[in-house]
Structures are given as C-alpha cells and as structure tokens.
Amino acid sequence: PDQGAGAEPELRVAVFVDLESVRITGHLLELSGGPQDGSLLAPGDDVTLTASDGSIQIASASAAAGPARARPLTGPLTLHSLAGVVTLNGAAYHGAAEVRVIARGRLTVVNRVPIEDYLPGVVPNEIGCEREEMLEAMKAQAIAARTYALANRNRYADAGIYGRAAASRRS
Predict the structure, then answer these.
(1) Around Cβ 141, how many Cβ atoms within 10 Å?
(2) Nearest 10 degrees: CA dihedral of 32, 50, 72, 1?
(3) Would you place residue 21 in the very low, low, confident or very high pLDDT band (cuts 50, 70, 90)?
(4) Closest among 84, 7, 106 to 97, alpha carbons compared
(5) Which residue among 47, 100, 104, 133 is least enclosed by CB atoms within 10 Å?
(6) End-to-end distance of the chain based on CA atoms, in angstroms?
(7) Distance CA 100, CA 74 (A)
(8) pTM (2 decimals)?
(9) What's the CA gap between 171 and 152, in Å, rounded?
(10) 135-152 helix and 115-127 helix, angle to the nearest 10 degrees
(11) Predicted pLDDT of residue 72
C-alpha cells in the first residue's frame, strides 16, 4: 500500500507459510477485508483460522464470544489489535496479522509491522544477546537489518509470500 511521503515504511514478513490453521489472540481484534470489515472480536477472544475450500474459516470458543461459532470469510483477512500486539500460535508480534489462502489451499500468515517496531524484535535475535558491551554491534546490526529489510521488502509480493525474518517480536 502507498504510505505517502514521510510515512514510516511498513514491512510484510511471512511468519508462517503453508499452515492448515493458525490460532490468534489479541486485545479487541478488528477484522478487515471483505464483508467482515470492521467486525470486532472481544478482548481475549481466542480464534482459530483454518483454510477450507479456498476460504478462511473462523472459529471461536472463548467465554467472551459465547458458544463456538464458525463462518467462512473471504481473504486476505487482516487483524489489528487495539493494543498493537497480535498473538499468533502463542508468539506475540507487533503490528497486524494478514492471513491469506495460498494456491495450495493452505494459509500464509504475514506480520505487517512498521520498520521501527520490527528492528527491536529482530536485532537481538540476530546478535544473540543484549549486553552493554554489545551496543556498537547492535547499532551496526540495526543498520544492516534496516537496509536489508527495505531493499527486500517487496521481493516476494507477486507470489503472495513475503520475506521471511526471525520475528518482529519484542520481549
């Protein structure tokens, strides 16, 4: 998407590829994409998205959502959390999650995250530690990671699969 002049670049990082299903939680998740635009899932709602016949099935069994429900959705489907963090299969990611059915009829989950939220999650994973004596190495790694991410951010867009990375997770 066009982000306009001065907007912070958004990265699209494939965090899961070729899954049958994915479990997503967040604080008041908002769905967008297709007829479900603007639908809200309750705080703490635990949903499972499953690929089925070229569409995405959503099922929820949380107490806040009432009895289990399932309904097909068109994709791609984007989930934003009002808290800015979406949990995918138990791991927290900053930004939004985009879920789409790929050609093989399975799911790809893409983390859509501003680059400045991505770097604090990925740099420590690449360096292996966060100690004071590693500060200059972390600065250099941040420059390298930013440069690589920006240079490759649209590399796999035509295939519907985006550049893989360690994670945009922060502890």
Answers:
(1) 18
(2) 30
(3) very high
(4) 84
(5) 133
(6) 28
(7) 9
(8) 0.73
(9) 25
(10) 130
(11) 66
| Two tokens, residue 82 | 């009002």
Q: How far apart are CA 165 and CA 74, in angstroms?
A: 27
Q: Tokens 């360690």 appear where?
A: 166
**Which three-class secondary structure state does DSSP give residue 48?**
strand
Q: Which two tokens stand for residue 72?
A: 């097909």
Long-range own/partner contacts, residues 32-40 (CB < 8 A, 24 or more apart): 32/77, 32/78, 32/79, 32/80, 33/73, 33/74, 33/75, 33/76, 33/77, 33/78, 34/73, 34/74, 34/75, 34/77, 35/74, 36/73, 36/74, 36/77
- Asked if residue 4 lies in contact with residue 91, where contact means CB atoms within 8 angstroms, the answer is no
Separation in Å, CA 3 to CA 8, 11, 126: 8, 12, 28
For residue 25, the tally of other CB atoms under 10 A from its CB is: 21
H-helix segments, the chain = 115-127, 135-152
Three-class SS of residue 155?
coil
* Cis, bond preceding 76 (omega within 30 deg of 0): yes
Tokens 């939220």 -> residue: 117
Report residue 20's pLDDT band, with 50, 70 and 90 as the boundaries: very high
Is the torsion defined by CA of 27, 30, 36, 38 positive or negative? positive
